[in-house]
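re the bet — no i am not wrong, look at it urself. input seq straight from the record:
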Amino acid sequence: MAKEIRITVDDETYDALQRLAADGHVEPGQYASQRLTADLAHLRFLEGTK
């Protein structure tokens, strides 16, 4: 089941998020979700290699 997380970021961070999302032709929220999921998967992988 999907969960929702709400975060607040400063204007500079949001502007960067919008630029990166536009490069991938997705909405900023969707891009942030994809990045968070990928980063957590990478961390789990690294923890498993210890």
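see?? The CA atoms of residues 14 and 37 lie 18 Å apart. told u. also The mean pLDDT is 95. so pay up
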